Amino acid sequence: MTQASNKPYHVVAIGNAIVDVLSFSDDAFIVGENMKKGTMCLIDEDRAEALYNKMGPSTEVSGGSAANTLAGLSSLGARTAFIGKVFKDQLGKIFRHDLQAVGVEFSTPPAETGRSTARCLILVTPDGQRTMNTFIGACNELYENDIDAGLIANAQIVYGEGYMWDMDCTKQAMKTAFKLAKENGAKVAFTLSDVFCVQRSREEFLSMIEHDVDILFCNEAEVRALYPEDDFPAILDKLQGKCEIVAVTTGDRGSVILTKDGRRTHVDAVPVHEVIDTTGAGDLYAAGFLYGYTHGMNIRECGRLGSACASDIITHLGARAQRPLTRLLVA
Amino acid sequence: MTQASNKPYHVVAIGNAIVDVLSFSDDAFIVGENMKKGTMCLIDEDRAEALYNKMGPSTEVSGGSAANTLAGLSSLGARTAFIGKVFKDQLGKIFRHDLQAVGVEFSTPPAETGRSTARCLILVTPDGQRTMNTFIGACNELYENDIDAGLIANAQIVYGEGYMWDMDCTKQAMKTAFKLAKENGAKVAFTLSDVFCVQRSREEFLSMIEHDVDILFCNEAEVRALYPEDDFPAILDKLQGKCEIVAVTTGDRGSVILTKDGRRTHVDAVPVHEVIDTTGAGDLYAAGFLYGYTHGMNIRECGRLGSACASDIITHLGARAQRPLTRLLVA
Fold this sequence. Notes:
The structure is a homodimer.
Chain A lengths: L8 E6 L3 E7 L2 H6 L7 E3 L2 H10 L4 E4 L2 H12 L3 E4 L6 H12 L3 E2 L11 E7 L5 E6 L13 H5 L1 E7 L6 H16 L3 E5 L3 H6 L1 H10 L3 E5 H7 L5 H8 L5 E5 L5 E5 L4 E4 L13 H13 L5 H15 L13 H4 L1
Parallel strand pairs in A: 1-5, 1-9, 2-7, 3-8, 5-6, 9-10, 10-11, 11-12
Antiparallel strand pairs in A: 2-4, 7-8, 12-13, 13-14
Helix pairs in contact in A: 3-11, 11-12
């Protein structure tokens, strides 16, 4: 049985507040635009405009890694709150609506000056892989004083995304939140987010994993970037025991979960009829896992629920569940 | 063989420029909100705000009936242009992008004052049926002088939606466009749009069908509203011969096409694995049909392509094709 406390919020997360703009594309477009398939690239507003003009017809769905995880948790029935920054524009309203509509508390006020709500231009290739280009916009306006200490004090788990390390202000806000979490006896959960993200902040991530993180989410490519000298089994050996839990997703091969007691639990992926868009697969794995963790499930059950949530999200465009995930709890 | 001319645009359409906000809901919500399932209701900004706050997490996809038809036509390879009015806001940019990205010419300038870009709040029930609530916003700012006479003169078909009859200014713009079409030897195509729409403008629609329309698109419920005294076979008898072509869609039973020569062509629906969302099914039927009509197909082929396009669109959320429809031409 995993641990849980009686604090009112199962998970409070701090993350980038982003609306995804999703479009199907072929591999040639990815190559032609010098993108690295399957990763996230930060772009400025001019590049966002230029790329958008080249992209095909799109669908807008609220996104943001940690926000996706909370939306999944809330859809499963957990109590959650989000801290992040939108601008006071139409996309900001959409982002706020979509979190609140699924039951996530979100009261960080919007930025009144500066840049517009963040957008992630996502190209989805025929293999279902997503390649992301993020204009970070108003996310850059999240500061330490946006971290609501009352929320953190009432959280069982405080969750953050590696993406926050790409900007000084958001990194500082995240560190403040993790510090408050520790002081209040909350668990610290963290996702490595992206290969490039790991490369940019490798030393800091290694130190955090060693000292701060209780539950680490990552995929195979990210841990390979974390320990570039080693092969995958050696990497798992290195990670084992560093945190209470390390959950490494390995795409359609499922996930492997390393626990402090030295056990290694392999969990299969849940097969789907057709993979449409893998955007949010990792975020929803974390959602299912953390729901299980905060609801007394054992590690294998946590992993299985993570797999089930990840499989649900890859059958349609976008990283937010289109129908309540509670049906996965019955199965 | 159907007729076509050598004019550069296969279809020029005038319509409402709307971004759809789609959300899954149960039937109880539809009943509780006093909506009439399967129809379109006009709402003001306050009601739009209140309803949005009650709706679940949503997905935004560009919409608008005639715009959907053009996007489908363009995705098939036709040359098309759209006339309609957005506001100079984020949703207006999204609407414009999604038309231009699929190859539809759209140069009507955005409104600089007045209300925001139109939104249609769409509840999709588990049976795939869609119930629409439209805040018409900037669409109300389309006037006669927005009708580009040069575009109309270069069109083989000028297409309009019954929805335009709900406002005086757009009705007048549409009438001007149809008059220019007649003067320039273009065919006039028209969709009855919605049951309530037919009820509101019944006498005018009957007169237009008699005198102005060459190609009429409608569904069974709409023609029943047009001739409320009659049963379906009697209605078809009344419609037969009134226009060069009357295409009546009948949901999963396909469509029946009435031609001036007295023939009645039945076309089956194309079965799908799972119906997710019927938003845009009629619009895409019209797209496939008009592509066939302007590319030398016979009536049965036109109807079959219409059915294939309609089936494609109901397998995902939203009324715009997510992948190029040209693959339906190969089949």
